[in-house]
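During the reporting period the student researcher (J.K.) took over the structure-prediction task from the postdoctoral fellow and processed the backlog of single-chain submissions. One of the processed entries is reproduced below for the supervisory committee.
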Amino acid sequence: MNYKNNNFYIEKIKAEKLIKKYGSPIYCYSNKSLVKNINNFKNSFKSFNPLICFSVKSNYNSTILKIIKGHGLGADVVSDGELKKVLSLGFKPNRIVYSGVGKKFSELKFAINKNVLLINVESESELSNIEKLAKMFKKKVNIGLRLNPNIDAKTNTKISTGRMQDKFGLSVSDIIKILEKFKNSYHIKIKCLSVHIGSQITQNKPYNNVLIKISKILAKSKFKFEYIDLGGGMGIKYNQNTKKLNYSKLSKNILKFSKKNNCKIIFEPGRSIVGNTAVLLTKVIYIKNSINKKFIIIDAGMNDLIRPALYNATHDIIPLNRKSSKNSIPHDFVGPICETSDRFLKIKSYQKINEGDNLAIKDVGAYGIVLASNYNLRPRPIEIIVKDSIVKKISKKQNLNDII
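J.K. obtained the following structure tokens:
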């Protein structure tokens, strides 16, 4: 996705043509970007050949998932809805990891019957429920224990999951206790130690701290785990100020760890696979001059992309037609929703912009459409994917009359 002769293109398609054909807002993906990210991730960690289970919660569009599956990735799911979806698309159960802090009895039952690779457990009560079901079905269920390592990933507090005050995982003492209690269970097979410390991590230090913490647990428990699941959370560059995670350095540290402990590594990437593969195309409805700034009111709202309102996330907004002229007054890009928090970006200066101009909100492939809603009774937008010069509709725009 880049500019050609000052016009923004998604692969070989001029983005403005897409708005003319489909209206706006539109979630638009690049097939090339998605495949490039998958291959880059696989190649970066090929020295220890991890099982890569895509985090389905980040994007569960069927076409996107089919491409991901076609390139050899498994799935990390957090609900029976996600599990049923990936199974319906042909993901193999032995390449599916079931995570989540609040799995209901019915969800556990379904996962056990489908023989998923691992159910990552987050409490002793959950493990007891699994044991009851395993006895009922006369099965031995493969389990991962999710560790809460009490490590701050230094990311947004709303997407940090590895601190003691966060709801996820088990303490070190709980894990030692569970290992002792269930090590001889006929129906429970503990195969994995799992950890996920948060999302949008751009430094290697948190991962290194996790490896140190896990090494201490392995030494203390003297338990042989077949798998170590290091979760995901690898960050992407949302703007020029964002650092990019050093995969090369991370790979070397994990290779050393996996060789020493003779274990298979599992990853659960989501954002790093799909985050920068999509833009949200939108149109300027009104420009309102205020004291010392301009409000740029666009037709995409927080119901279409809630990340800025929910996480204070920053997404660059670019014009589909680039001009050299600059307007040095601050611009506040906002949506049409009746909420003050329905705002996307505040920027000190921007090119000359008019009502009716078309824009692209960048890097919306992860936690974009999956978090969209019908707030203000607005229909969810259409999704399309571009491959070279071919455009494919991969989800319909909701029909307002159907919602009503």
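The committee noted the following: The CA atoms of residues 204 and 246 lie 7 Å apart.
J.K. will present the remaining backlog at the next meeting.
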